[in-house]
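Lab notebook, bench 4. Still working through the backlog of constructs that have no structural model yet. Next entry is a single chain of 210 residues. Request: give me the structure tokens for it.
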Amino acid sequence: MRVKVSWQKYTVATLFFFVSIGLTGCAPTPKKYQDTSELEKPPELGVVSSTTEQAATESSSDKTTQQANKGLGDVVKRTDDSHLLMILSFGEAWKQVEKAINLSGMEISDKNIQKGQYYVVFDPDLADNKNSDNIFTSFFISGKYNKARYLLTFTDTSEGTSMKAEFLEYAESRDSHQDGYADPTPADNGLAKFLQTLYTTLHDDLPLAQ
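Model written out:
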């Protein structure tokens, strides 16, 4: 037996369905969902301005330039315990060494460019104290050497200018006590320290003209 369903029933059901959807969409939104001020906000990412980036780049570039404009580098070489070789003309080597002497805290007591000689007074203890960050270490290092006079002699060579360092004498006597006993003269006259200090200054620290 065939069951007949009235089309009116389908029409009423369909209409009821769409009306229900429409009413649901028009329902007011609960207040807690309308106010978003209390919702957690995502963190704000800092934006580096192009000006800041440019300043940082220029600062880094300046430091690199300053480092590049210091020291003769491989232009100066230590050939043995008493000689340096500079791949420079006599006049240029003479000028650069005088700068290095002054920068190293040494004192020029006399000089003669005709003979190619510098007479230099230097206390090797100063170099040790400068390289030590520990105040107690510096205290015990002090007095290891005596301030002394050294002679630097320049000679033209086929490779450049050779400089010889020699110990001349102690610039001051050892402390004397009331019993007439004087502190012993140090076994090390500081020549190696003197030459190494000059070499390091020339190679790494000497400001170069831009």
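Notes after review: Residues 59-66, 134-141 have pLDDT under 50 and may be disordered. The chain has seven helices and six strands. Flag for follow-up if needed.
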